[in-house]
Model the fold of this input.
Amino acid sequence: MSQGLAGYVIRRLLWTVPVIFLISVFVFLLLRLAPQDPIDSLLGQRYDDEIADRLRAKYGYDRPLHIQYLKYVQNLFQGDLGVSTRHGDFSVAEVVIPKIRVSAGMNIMAMILIFGIGVPIGVYAALVRGSFLDPLVIGFWLLVDAVPVFITAVVAPWFFALQLGWVDLTYEGVIHPNIILPVFVMALPGVAGVARLMRASVIQVSSEDYVRTARAKGLRERTVVTSHVVRNALLPMVTVVGLSLPGLFTGTLFVELLFGIPGIGREALLAVLGFDFDVVLGLVLFGSILFVLANILIDIAYGFIDPRIRITAARSV
Amino acid sequence: MTSMATPLEAGDFAGRPTPRFRFLRELVHKKIAMIAIFFLAIFYLAGIFAPWVSTDDPNYQRLTIEDRLAAPSGDHWFGTDGAGRDLFSRVVYSARTTLLFTLVVILTGSLFLGLGLGLLAGYRGGWIDAGIMRVGEVLSGVPTLLLMLAISAAFRTRLNDVAFWLQENTFLGDDARAIVPFLIIVGAALPFAWIGSARIVRSQVFAIREQEYVLAAETIGVSTARLLLRHVFPGVLPIFLVGVSAGMAGIAGSEIALSYLGLGVDPSTPSFGTLLQNAGGVRTFQEFPHMLLVSGVPLILFFFSWNLLGDALVDIVEPRTYRR
Done:
């Protein structure tokens, strides 16, 4: 059984290699074949052919493309992601890691908020289904979900900071009360998805035999709901948590942009606009690999939580 | 098998509604879905008939103090923006941009690529299936916005040359300046637009492939193309539509996000992204709230309607988890 799982994981990982390779080639060519390079945006108005040529020679941008790519891959295997031309040749890791930390911190808080609000709302909606409250509650959060972040990120600060004066808008680090508002703005659109999934899951679990058994043996409704229904209904949430794991590190561009937070989303945008080759490529590869790993983790986690899935998975392999 | 033994009379199906009509009838019964469809119809009709609906040229500037940033009035129903352009007309034309973009991406991405690859993967199976699905899996895992930004930025720099060349040498004329950036963002959205629908179609094909009527069609030697189109496709259609409607808001949103960041449509082309960008930050909102509200509210209603409609469609196609 465990061998089946191991084989499955290995097969998934092996599939990942060619696809990640293709993505890296694609992004590499996309950036290098663009009519602009980091040197153009670095020099800007002070562009001078001689200086530009020397800089291109320094970074190796004057060499043939396949040599550049091979060099990149060679460095990659030695753990060297290259340097950021926009940040005075600091290594990609040095530039990116502090910003990933900021984004990850905010994202974890946002996720806690999303599940803290979404799960109870989903359970509530499922319990009152058939009445007008169910569509009303879900509908409300669908409306919240429909508000683009770049509207909330303007209106919420206006209301809470300028009108009510409850918070300041300056960024003072992740562990600071000022972070509450951006985290809140980040979390709002996610609630509807979790609530809807939780609602469907609770409804489905409610019709299981063991729930009927629990009721039949005279358990209090409260106990049935909390320890039989909700506990099992939380299972599909593993997927949601797992799928949002890579998102923890890719940042939320608009919130970071509008609140002036030095996170990885904003860094990625600036890197793209400045054609900071190595930073963009590094972030794309990092994000893709994280996603694949998260998917595999979900499968393994399912196996641990629900043995029935493990057995069928092993059989099908 | 039993149905083979007793030949069916044409009249057997007379009184029974076909599944397709059942689908429509259930949709009509959902009041919320009908409200959503009603609003979406207004939105899209305004977009289609933008030149007749709008009250002014969306790009006509009035650079006098009293005409700039004016609040809504009888002359300008939605007020004017920083360059004195009529916001009502700009919103109407933005609906047109959204409509065009989603239409092109849905037709090429979801319909052509998504349906095609989904049918292929589901019907052929094996390593073709594994290949298509793995590519989709990783593509959906790539930081989408980042890659779209990179694609858009990479092609942008040569943009003016291409646009001017098209303007000089083809029938496009002045439209070339708007069309080229539009095509770039369509190209940026396409790699991600097919994945969702391909996945849905594939899993559906897996189920249908095992049905006896498909086997029967195979046995009498129906060609693969005809088999897929005549026998498999109709069964896939309802759930495919659900998938498309669930993806609509996301596709429209990607254009708006790119335009907001200045990497989307040409600045002269009205788009909700550029409108909201112009509506500015917190201070601008405090001074001139009409700019954000008149472009934000229609957009929120648009997304909301698609959310509601998508919810209702899932309800109909998969009643198991919803009505009991």
Remarks:
- The mean pLDDT of chain B is 81.
- Residues 62 and 252 of chain B are 30 Å apart (CA to CA).
- The two ends of chain B are 32 Å apart (CA to CA).
- Chain B touches chain A through 51 residues (CB under 8 Å).
